[in-house]
Amino acid sequence: MLQQVLFKKFTIFYLAVAILYFLALFFLPQYVSVTKPLIMSSLIGFYISTETRQNNGFLLGMIFALLGDIFLMFDNDSFFIAGLFCFLLMQWTYLFTFKQHFTKPNVKTALYFTTIFLISCSLLAWMWPYLGSMKMHVTIYFISILSMVFFAITRDKNIPFYFSVVSGAILFLISDALLAVNKFALQFNYAGVLVMLTYIAAQYLIVTGIVGQRYHK
């Protein structure tokens, strides 16, 4: 019961943080540098305060995500690569956390991941001519995030909050795909909003899913 109350209170708080970020994005952009880091900072605080058996690797991954958020606030290729590297490290720490509950994929799981893989490959192939000197960077990142999604999907389905973590991993993939398309291939309206909406939801689902599985054992 106490855990449910904590989850509800944090969800309300996290929603307030997200709204604050978007208000700053639209009306007070000079404060985005303050509100954006609050997203991962709040998740880190929630994890530390509620998880009794903390996974140091997973916690480190959240810190890398926070650093990535900060680097990507700067409109500079060097900072973009630094942010990309931080999120690459985050994906691998998340990956190893998911891998702890790995189960051999059945036909349904294999088809599910194959579909995601083929769609992602098609997107990368379409973007390839636009990537220029970033081809290698984006390809490595592409392999990394798909690996994270794979190990999220192949976790034991009997674990509580399984679908929360899977949904979060897929939303993270969608968020990064939107970011890449907008940056390298085709700029579109409200790209930043869509990227952050999917990212904010992704991190919430992954972190609360990892915490939730402990409380329901």
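Second entry:
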Amino acid sequence: MLSFIGGTGPEGLGLAFRFLLAGEDVIIGSRSAERAAAAADKLKEMLASSPSGDATPSGTAQGMENEQAVKAGDDIIITVPFGGQADILALLRDAIGDKLVVDTVVPVKFAKGKISAIPVEEGSAAEQAQRVLPEATVISAFQNLSAETLMDPHEAVDCSVIVCGNDLEAKKKVMGLAEKIEGIRAIDGGGLANSRYVEDLTTLLLNINRIYKAHSSIQITGL
């Protein structure tokens, strides 16, 4: 069971949708139970409108308040905006405990028509999450995926996902989870400190997408 914190936003919904298609059960967490339930209903509508329809077995979706969601989930996926990450995770620290946490957060700001990276004291959003959740195992992944692509039932995903973390077994688990999504190849990106480079790459992709009006992603070749 995968619990999404910040799952009512486009990135969380899109990623949850792709895991549903892969047969995973998901919980959408929100500060509001009503918003969480509405997001779960939206996911069910997206599944019904996907090309596979009801022909392919898929996972189930339900909505809960954040604390209930992290308690009920086996693994936690963080898809909140960077500005709220530290405060939200601090509130959920005890409920999360020593669970596996997958951080997808990118420290980026949009101001005056410009997209730029936000400096992070810890080095990266993922390292900030690990500081706030000292008992949890934090792995970073999925930062470079386009929310628009993920949410479109008719658009194929075709990209690499770089996975960074200090716990080898946890990293392998997340790499396997990533490759359950059709079209994704997981790449071992080394330790958690390398998350800063992946997060910065996302800022570059956002700028490229703005210039070309596209939903670009990345492919790691030669491996």
